[in-house]
Amino acid sequence: MKKTVLAVALSGALLSAPALQAEELTTDEQKLSYSLGLILGQKLKMDVENLDIESFRDGVETVYSGKEPLLTEEQIGGVMQAFQQRKMEEQRAAFAKLADDNKAAGEKYMAENGKKKGVKTTDSGLQYEELTAGSGKSPTESDTVKVHYRGELIDGTEFDSSYSRNQPVSFPLNGVIPGWTEGLQMMKEGGKARLVIPADLAYGPGGMGNAIGPNETLVFQVELLEVNPAAEAAEAAEGEAKAE
């Protein structure tokens, strides 16, 4: 391990290190050594669940005593490469299991939700429930829409909301997830609806960042405020004029 890598890891962890239990640490050297041990231990525990403390201590002592290492640089590289490969395989397996669990939970949720009065399940698998009937026009896939919305996971966890920002959003209907593209075309201006969107019409097995996991079924409450809002049309016209 390069000294610069260790230095960055240690300095980055200093800010989050817990208060030291220093009642038995009398010298500055002891306190520094203990602090470094805690900081490095915290970092290591995140990746190495079971650490052989004795072998780890021997490795550190070898460096500071100048003894001959028991492993060559090539052997160390092989050990670390194998460890990283195992961690990657574990992460892939955990991600795949989460995707399977989310898919099963979503299917169960939608099976129950589909029995509710007023819920329509389309051929694609989207579930649509009208909450408030609209009286304006319905958008087409090529239109721009202005909406207020709230997005949740099936357990009720909110991951996004224009209501919380107190700011509706406008976007081309063909530029969002398929469940939105289909669902909003079933609405009319002024209407509100509840959309339950299966993973294959949302973000699929890849999920989206930390907010939406793999194969998550999503629940949206959507309020269609306007189709092709004037501000959007004006911006588009201005953009075309500049292009000419």
Question: How would you describe this structure to a colleague?
Answer:
There is one protein chain. With 244 residues, the chain is of the alpha+beta class. The chain is built from seven helices and seven strands. It has helices at 3-14, 28-47, 53-65, 73-113, 162-165, 178-184, 230-243; strands at 119-121, 127-132, 144-153, 158-161, 169-172, 192-197, 218-227. Strands 1, 2, 3, 4, 5, 6 and 7 form a seven-stranded antiparallel sheet that branches. β3 (144-153) and β4 form a beta hairpin. α1 crosses α2. The longest helix is centred in the middle third of the chain and has 41 residues, at 73-113.
Concise description?
The chain is of the alpha+beta class and 244 residues long. It contains 7 helices and 7 strands, in the order ααααββββαβαββα.
